[in-house]
Amino acid sequence: MVGRRDRTEATAIVVAATAAYAANCALGTAVAARLVDTSRFRWVHHLLYVVTCATTAVALVCAWRSRTGRRAAIALAPAVVPLAVIPYAGTRGRRHPLIALAAAPFYLASVASSLLPLDRK
Question: Buried b / exposed e across 37-62, counting CB within 10 Å, b at 16+?
Fold first, then answer.
């Protein structure tokens, strides 16, 4: 099997990008619900955002270069738009969480398509 290793690597990085996104959303939700106070450590949420963006970019490149992971790359590509807009959305009000959650379907679709068998009939 020629593309098995490429597929495994592409799936792993797509899952890593999705995990970074989920961790960032979980922290943001916990802060909004006042379950966690990061007022002295705001950089943690910002660092998770940077990790999310970086792993998403790497996932896009790796999945696209892997012939077998192109479906995952195509599914993940629209998540770049909310990630690019979120720094300008402000942190107060509904816009920030709504824009952040707009990327969720694309991460889920990317993971699902990276796990689908290649030889569907």
Answer: eeeeeeeebeebbebbbebbeebbeb
